[in-house]
Design a protein that fits this description.
mainly alpha, about 65% helix, about 0% strand, elongated
Length: about 600
């Protein structure tokens, strides 16, 4: 069995010291645990074997791990190690909340074929204890149930108990463990269990679920779950099933599945859930999980923890981690200003990374994205100056051009360089070409810019039809601000017949999605129809979001509405502000900041 941690948690030690030893002082058990945690295994053995320590659960676990795992090169003593671990889990009234790793030891011994062969009575005792603990809600997992089933089938070789194995496989199957389903179905098909109506029904259910997945190996299961989650046609039940598969694999120490679950949770904004799975993936060796975890820690203000993870990854020559550390050297994620030495170190690494040949690095390698990021950072420094580098737009262009067809963000940055009218590289036609290229690589939000360029003839001839197609495409891809642009087209009759009704419909859709400009446009539209009550109401909704540029228009609208309609206009504005506008903050209310109600 894989040993996830060769050290006892400091929390467990501190609790033991406080509850069992009083003031630990210079006791042998304290010296034992301290030596073990510091990797001084020979000293740990010496202190743990002392008479006043050797009966303590910490000492028994430490001795078991050192001897069984040959920690410190002291010589592997498997039988002696197993004996200490056996004594550890059978310490009277052992508190599993203090020693959760005891459950892993039970599973380890209950899954060890040699241990069963050489220590049948004790191994059977361990199995019975593991069964009892595994049924506790706190320790229920399909992996534990499968391990118990395996023991009843393969380790009790003189007299396999297939009915008992079925019982535990069924528990795991009910947790949607497809491997357990496979072995459960195998017991049924080989006539190793009695075919009762209940078992027949369970077997049919297993076939249905495994047929739905269509896979059996860990890699296939993972790929199946990923495909389910990435398929837009998957319903909620199927998506949940895919997540369950990944969680089961992750719980069973598959780092890639833990990484996928963590990444999905992060994408969905559930940082707490993401962190749980990314920590598991990181501990299981996933470098990608480590990088994502460092970002979460930075967001939480746990900069030291984030930097520690990055340093650990950098020590393994992870270029992405070293790049993030270079950004820290340049002042990212820190409160104190970087020193000249730190800046020089950060810039030096970024320049070195940016100079690497992308053609020599696989796109699937983390280094590939790190090189791209380094070139983008360096280009940004040349665009704006700083860190001892003067502005140099041409150098920035050169760096970004090297990333064409490799990075949509770089194409977007090039487009902005070409659209800077104070730049020596100013060229709207090139800017349009780069914006369009970035869209093909996923930056759908640039459809707004490209549509506007065709609408107004910037970098190209005016093309109302194409602009309308682009804005419609933008809306379809989720860029809801494009509703406002479509509203402008219908209001002004740009390539289509004027249609104020259609324009208002589109403006309202945009406003309901949070586009404040659409509120202003609705006010203009209503004023053009001599509907000054609604013009004032929409203008007030726009003003409620902090815009003061329409103050004069509001006065005009209220004046045109007339004294009789003044109160109606104000009441209407309150309703629209509630639905579309922005509620004033408490401090603004206290300052009587609702000026638009009395412009």
């Amino acid at each position: 069995m894989k040993n996830n941690s060769s050290k006892i948690s400091s929390l467990a030690i501190s609790i033991v010291c406080a509850t069992m030893l009083g003031a630990c002082g210079e006791s042998n058990i304290e010296k034992c645990t301290q030596a073990f945690n510091e990797g001084e295994y020979e000293l740990a053995v010496e202190k743990c074997e002392k008479e006043d320590a050797v009966t303590e659960p910490d000492a028994l676990y430490i001795l078991g791990r050192i001897k069984k795992d040959d920690l410190g090169g002291l010589g592997r003593e498997t039988d002696a190690g197993n004996e200490y671990l056996y004594r550890f889990i059978f310490v009277p009234n052992l508190d599993l909340s203090i020693y959760p790793h005891a459950v892993d030891v039970m599973k380890e011994l209950a899954s060890d074929e040699e241990y069963f062969k050489n220590n049948k009575p004790k191994a059977t005792q361990v199995l019975k204890l593991f069964e009892k603990v595994a049924k506790d809600p706190q320790h229920k997992s399909s992996a534990n149930f499968r391990a118990i089933a395996n023991a009843y089938i393969n380790l009790l070789s003189d007299n396999p108990d297939y009915e008992k194995a079925w019982e535990y496989l069924d528990m795991a199957s009910q947790m949607k463990d497809l491997d357990a389903m496979y072995y459960q179905a195998k017991l049924y098909m080989l006539d190793l269990v009695e075919k009762t109506p209940e078992k027949t029904k369970a077997f049919q259910n297993i076939l249905e679920q495994r047929s739905r997945a269509g896979v059996s190996s860990v890699d296939e299961l993972r790929e199946y779950a990923k495909s389910v989650l990435e398929d837009s046609r998957s319903d909620a039940e199927t998506i949940e099933y895919g997540k369950t598969i990944l969680k089961e694999l992750a719980v069973n120490d598959d780092p890639e599945s833990a990484l996928i679950i963590g990444s999905i949770s992060l994408k969905n904004g559930d940082e707490k859930e993401a962190k749980k799975w990314l920590i598991k993936a990181h501990k299981a060796g996933s470098s990608l999980a480590a990088l994502q975890l460092s970002d979460i820690y930075f967001d939480e203000g746990r900069n030291d923890d984030a930097i520690e993870i990055l340093k650990e990854q950098a020590s393994k020559d992870n270029q992405a981690a070293r790049f993030k550390l270079a950004l820290v050297d340049l002042g990212h994620h820190r409160n104190d200003p970087p020193s000249e030495e730190e800046i020089a170190r950060g810039i030096s690494f970024i320049e070195g990374l940016a100079s690497r040949d992308l053609a020599e690095v696989s796109e699937k390698n983390q280094d590939y994205q790190a090189i791209i990021a380094a070139r983008r950072i360096l280009a940004s420094i040349y665009i704006y100056g700083g860190f001892g580098r003067e502005k140099n737009i041409k150098k920035a262009e050169e760096l970004l051009l090297s990333l064409i067809d490799k990075s949509a963000e770089s194409e977007d940055e090039l487009a902005h360089i070409y659209s800077m009218n104070d730049s020596e590289l100013f060229d709207n036609a090139k800017a349009l070409a780069m914006f369009e290229k970035s869209i093909t690589h996923g930056m759908e939000e640039n459809n707004l810019t490209v549509g506007s360029m065709y609408l107004h003839g910037i970098g190209t001839d005016k093309n109302y039809e194409k602009a309308m197609r682009i804005f419609t495409k933008a809306v379809d891809s989720g860029v809801v601000d494009a509703y406002n642009d479509l509203g402008n087209i219908y209001l002004n009759g740009l390539g289509v017949d004027k249609d104020p009704v259609k324009a208002e419909e589109l403006y309202r859709k945009s406003a309901s999605s949070g586009n404040h400009v659409a509120l202003y446009n609705l006010a203009i539209l209503k004023a053009s129809q001599d509907n000054y009550v609604d013009a004032y109401a929409w203008g007030a909704a726009y003003a409620s979001c902090g815009y003061t540029d329409g103050r004069m228009k509001l006065k005009y609208y209220l004046k045109m509405a007339g004294k009789k309609s003044r109160q109606e206009a104000i009441e209407s504005s309150r309703k629209l502000i509630e639905e579309y506008g922005c509620k004033p903050k408490e401090e603004e209310k206290q300052k009587n900041a609702r000026w638009w109600e009395n412009p």
